[in-house]
Amino acid sequence: MFIYALQKGFKELSAAIDAAKQDWNNDELRKDANFRLGSYLHWMMDFWERIEQKATVASEDKTFFSAFRYANNKLKHGHELLAPYNLSGGLEFPDFEFPFSSEPIGLAWAEFEKSENEFENQFENYQTFLQGKQIGDTINQARKILGHYYEMH
């Protein structure tokens, strides 16, 4: 079930992010992208926890997934935060010349302020591995790590 959920969840997350990027002012599309990200994180972290129980996991992978654990917990408990992503990229016009190109609009992990009662290591790992980075790139990196351990067992 985990593999099915991760594959289906990734497709749904990708579609929701693509739709939200096309119309960032559409509140429903942003909510759906956030929902799909939360669902994917939930399945991913459940799968990771199973891997940790059954396999010898490299310390750098534990550290990397600790950042996702922080993001997952923020989604579940961070009521002051509505979305774990920010808009990045877009057009800039100062002193441009033709032809010009612009960075495509993408979604990056949000910045969080450290608050009391948070796990220090998870917060620091989030800042190192996720904060400000493109969501798709980091999810793909996590998928590769999960695939590595899955193939071993």
CA-based shape: globular
How far the N terminus sits from the C terminus, by CA atoms, comes to: 16 Å
| Rg estimate, integer Å | 17 Å
H-E order: HHHEEHH
**Strand ordering within the main sheet:** 1-2
Q: By helix and strand content, what is the structural category?
A: mainly alpha
- Total strands: the figure is 2
Number of helices: 5
The low-confidence parts are 79-85
Number of domains: 1
What portion of the residues fall into strands of 2 or more residues? 5-15%
Mean pLDDT: 82
Give a written overview of the molecule.
- With 153 residues, this protein is mainly α.
- It has one domain.
- Helix content is 63%, strand content 8%.
- It is built from 5 helices and 2 strands; from the N terminus they run H-H-H-E-E-H-H.
- It has helices spanning 2-22, 27-54, 59-77, 120-129, 135-152, and strands at 85-90, 103-109.
- The two termini are 16 Å apart.
